[in-house]
Amino acid sequence: MKSSIYWKIAFSVLLLVWAIWNLWPLSDTPFEQYLGQRATAHAPELQTLIKHAQDLTKQAAADETALKAAEQAAAAAKQVYLPDTAKAEFVQRHRTFYLSLKSICEDEGLGKDAKPPIDLWTEFFPGLNAGDTKNIKHRNDLILADLLKQSKGHIKYGLDLQGGLGFTLSLDDASLNGATSNVRALSLQKAIEIINKRINGMGVSETVTRPIGDSTVEILMPGVSSKDNPDAVDVIKKPAKLEFRIAQAPPGGVAPTPDQIPLGYEVMMEEDESQTTGDLVETPYVVSSAAVASGNIISSAYPITDPTTGQYKVAVNFTSEGGKLMGDLTAKLVNTPQLLAIVLDGKLNSALRIKDAFSASCVVEGGGAGFTQKEAFDLANVLNNPLDKALKLDEMTEVGPTLAQEARDSSLKAGLLGTLLVIVFMCGIYSLAGFLSVLTLILNVAMILGVQASLGATLTLPGVAALVLTIGMAVDANILIYERMREEMGHGKNLFNSLEAGHDRALASILDSHVTSIITAVILMWLGTGPIKGFGVILAIGLAANLFCVLVFNYALLELVTGKNWLTKVNFRRLIPEVNLPFYSYRKIAIGCSIAVILIGLGAIAYRGTSALGTDFRGGDEVSVHFAQPIPQSGIDEVAKENKVSAEATYQTELGTGVQMLKIQTDAGSGKPLLAALAKKYPQAKLDVDNASVNLIGATVSQSLKWNALLAVGLSLLGVMVYVAFRFEVGYAVGAIVATLHDVIITVGVYVLLGGQFTSPMVAAVLMIIGYSLNDTVIVFDRVREELKLNPHLKLVQVLDLAVNKTFSRTTMTSLTVFLAAFSLFVFGAGVVHEFALVFMIGIATGTASSIFIANPVFCWWHKGDRNHVEARDFAPKYDWDSSTRGAS
Length: 889
Hints:
This protein is α+β, with helices and mostly antiparallel strands. The chain has five domains: 29-151, no CATH class; 164-240 and 395-399, Alpha-Beta Plaits, CATH 3.30.70; 242-386, Gyrase A, domain 2 (2-Layer Sandwich); 405-601 and 704-872, no CATH class; 620-697, ACT domain (Alpha-Beta Plaits), CATH 3.30.70. Helices cover 57% and strands 13% of the residues. The strands form four sheets. It has an eight-stranded antiparallel β-sheet with strand order 3-4-2-14-17-18-16-19. Strands 5, 6, 7, 8, 11 and 12 form a six-stranded antiparallel β-sheet that branches. It has a three-stranded antiparallel β-sheet with strand order 9-10-13. Helix 14 (461-490) packs across helix 24 (796-828), helix 19 (633-642) packs across helix 20 and helix 21 runs antiparallel to helix 22. The chain is globular.
């Protein structure tokens, strides 16, 4: 036996251990508990600190309840409410354990004898990397942020699987006073672009950002909670007005008294960190109240280092108008005591002394020893915020998962049932070999999730779709090898020789099917955004894992059990009998049925019009209502179906008040009628329909995202066509693309005909169908190419029928295993998962049929039925159609 077998298995086991290491912990550890576990010094004192922070958080909760009760009592008595400002400030500083701990470390200490601030790094966590900052407050922030991140489970879920934070930001009405609708729309779109850049810089992916009206934007951030990630709130609130003003340093660095401040100026403090003591130092400047320029004059800014001194600087590029403006302005400031102040949201960020006039670009140098790395990056970050319209925070809520608890639980059970059915199927048909394929699948899934966790990628519903697709392709690859082994054993070969021959003959098909899907995944990652990109990332990881697991690990296991004589005989059960049918002769009936179904589907799409699109594609109503008892997700879905509208429901809790709200996104004009129907069917919920708010929401899927998605899918199909054309020849590529488009059109049409709506998750389902269809068709074409070489005496039509008959067992069994998993999701899943499974089931049926009845006839038509033209690999036939006489040689 080859020694390499043991090395392959050992390496696979190491990969499994690595994957589990990256996945662990699977769930979050409470932050308070994690702090105690990670402390490497003075652990008892840290526990005292933790207990004190917990007590302060409880006190803040009690005070918040008291403040709310006092406010309600004043409102009931129709009296003016005068809040206890000290108590309100205490609540704000200790609303969560995280904030309480930061507050203690900054300025409260543990008691009268304590000397704040407390240095978490030196006192409790000396082993952590605290960066190069000497300021204790900043260092504490870094330590707490790092510990918080480490306390989280390594699998990150998107908003559709775990919820997150919701924000509503609006443009300053004063700044938009009198603006046209086009100007307001452009300002809002600009704000959305900047917010997305800021959020992406935080490492939060799959963010939903959409306009509401013409001056408000809603942001949903997956996996971000106000309790454990308060800094995320600051990042969202930070986008604001960036201004350039004229400033002067006061004599002696002493802030002037109010009567000494010139008219039209104000005193502003620049905060900086001392490079010697690490303390925060405030430097006063007299700054003009009026701005001389705004942030829209900057096109880009980025930190650089001086190649001679190594000092950090900031390179700034201006727009054409901005370069002229700054050139004129800075020319007047050269060799004068006046400075150029950079003000962000009314706060002085930097005051720059101008040595030379600017032009189209400039390099900003720090005073004295120059910028530190952090200062350079911070200044560049500020300059890259070109918002010229101020944003204000209107509302901030904790958003529950899009998939309600009921839907998640039922879908999880359905997924487990589907997996069990696949395991029983594989073991029942292929006995021990089937069990080995199950072990391969375990390694496969662990590797996919392990790589995803190590990259910090976010797992969303489209990502789950890609995971299901790659698992289906892995099962298909195993079935392909086993069916080729069955053929070889039927020729009289022993088990070991059948294994080698079957593996070798299946290798080309497996590689071709995976390479075509990898091309799709790469293009989706390149051009896709949001859920499309997430699908591409998981698909690419899964395909690479598939190739290793099937071609290395599973093959090594089979070699081991056969080489050790642990497996001497294989009785592969035949679920699908051998067939010898003239499939090509059925092409007219099949194509006729396909055309009829396509026309019916297109008719249904045209009849339903925009109602066939979900609210995330066309917008709609968003209703918010108070309730006494929650309504189950299945109940909301049922009432929406009875009223023939769509409904996506989430339960939310308003931060600060703790008041729960039910938010439902539905069709435009259907918000209030749907609430009335829910109130009638579920009176115990006590929905406050009369006081419910209804907002018109914009489409989540922006116009650019739609075009990017279409472009990504189109280029993916083109890339696959080019690969298949070079790997096989053009006729195969044409057949594969036509079959794939056939599957997509029929699936979408039938789904809409059955009453479904096309939403963002359905995009993932369509991408799955494309991947599945291509995989199935390419494997059939690989067999066609093989049979052309083995049977030079047969005509092209005969070869096509032979190839389909020999792959029929593999095609139907693969489709059956994937269909079983999808069917369990359809029967037991809920909400989006149920709809997703329905689309995939339709796609599996159409994909299986097109591989047999569509791809081959199109391929044959392209070559006019002549195998000579296939073997010549010419682009187009050079002679007339005559299938009865061509191709015999």
